[in-house]
Structure formats: C-alpha cells, structure tokens
Inverse folding.
C-alpha cells in the first residue's frame, strides 16, 4: 500500500530546473545525515549542492517547505522497499497455507513462528545495512514533533508500513491484527534503534527477542 506524496515547494517544468531541484533535495538529505535537521539552512544547502543561494530560496522560500519536500523525496526513493516487503509477506502467508495441509496445529504454529521471526530479522538487518536512511528516518521523526506539516506526512508514511503488517496477520486469520501489527512494528523500531547505535548486529540475540514476541502473538491466533 502506497500513500500519495505531495511536494509543497516551487516546481519547475524545465528539465534543468527539475534537475537542480533534485540536487538541492539530495544535498539537504546529506546535510541531515551529517548535522541533523538543524543543519538545514539555505546557505548550507546551497554550498552542499554547489548551487547559487538564489536557487534554494527560489524553490523553497520557507525552510520548512525544504525539509518537508526532502522527506517526500526520501520517501519516494524508499517506499518501494515497503512494497517489496509487502509482497514477501504475502508469499510467506501463502507458504504457511500450503504447510497447513500436512502439519497439525502445534507444528503449524511452530513453523509460523520460525519463518516469521526469520523474515522480521532479515528485514531489520537489511534496514540497518542502509544506515543513512535510518538516520534520516529518525531525524524526520524528531523534527515532526515540532513541525505539524511534517508530522502529518510522517504519520501517513508510518501507516503504510503498519497496514502491510496488519494485512499479514489478517491473512493469517488473526482477529487482533491491528494490535499484532503494533507489537511487531514496535519491536522492529526498537531493535533498529538499538543496533544502529551499537553498530554490530547480533543475529542470535535479535532472533531470540523477535521470536519471543512473535511466539506470543501466534499462540493467540
């Protein structure tokens, strides 16, 4: 599930203008990774993008619009990963349904816990492999606490991921898919944050934490 994304800054119909606008947005993302949201200033962005200061103020007279459009640009580049995750989850549900034909209920639940836990761990590990993207996500979430315009966009993007997880559990037959999805998303975000700080991924520990959470959810289905 993808949400419609809207740019708020000035647009350009010319190819060279569009290219310059993208240069400014990419420079803004690099600055956020290096210095955080507070490092985003017109002059700093212009220097990072190697464009005239007038270019940044032309497309974004308000710095909040530049930050908002940077989030939109970042989301456009990364939402395909959520779509791919959604497709993989459907494939996992399908494989579980096939297993149901030959396994009894305890075996079935054990298979679900194992496969789903591995699936989530692989997702977390893949997310952490894109460190700059995780830094950007955290920076945008923090800024959203002070920026209502950004908060609305962040909430919509978070909901796309949450909806994918809900659909997975609904497909598994859960009557508490919404609650299940929130538990899984919470553990994913927590582990991403922890291991982003630690810098070293512990496969065994992450699997133990995830499988414990998943086991409680699956047993209740």
């Amino acid at each position: 599930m993808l949400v419609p994304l809207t740019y708020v800054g000035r647009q350009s119909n010319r190819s060279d203008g569009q290219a310059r606008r993208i240069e400014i947005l990419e420079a803004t993302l690099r600055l956020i990774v290096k210095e955080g949201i507070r490092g985003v200033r017109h002059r700093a962005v212009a220097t990072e993008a190697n464009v005239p200061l007038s270019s940044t103020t032309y497309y974004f007279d308000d710095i909040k619009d530049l930050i908002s459009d940077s989030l939109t640009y970042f989301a456009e580049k990364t939402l395909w990963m959520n779509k791919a995750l959604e497709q993989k989850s459907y494939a996992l549900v399908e494989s579980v349904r096939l297993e149901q034909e030959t396994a009894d209920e305890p075996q079935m639940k054990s298979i679900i816990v194992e496969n789903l836990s591995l699936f989530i761990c692989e997702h977390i590990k893949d997310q952490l492999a894109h460190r700059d993207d995780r830094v950007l996500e955290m920076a945008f979430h923090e800024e959203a606490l002070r920026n209502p315009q950004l908060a609305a966009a962040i909430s919509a993007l978070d909901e796309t991921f949450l909806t994918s997880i809900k659909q997975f559990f609904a497909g598994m037959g859960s009557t508490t898919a919404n609650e299940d999805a929130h538990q899984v998303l919470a553990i994913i975000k927590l582990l991403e944050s922890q291991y982003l700080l630690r810098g070293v991924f512990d496969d065994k520990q992450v699997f133990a934490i995830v499988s414990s959470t998943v086991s409680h959810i699956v047993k209740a289905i």
Remarks:
- The CA atoms of residues 46 and 52 lie 6 Å apart.
- The chain has a mean pLDDT of 88.
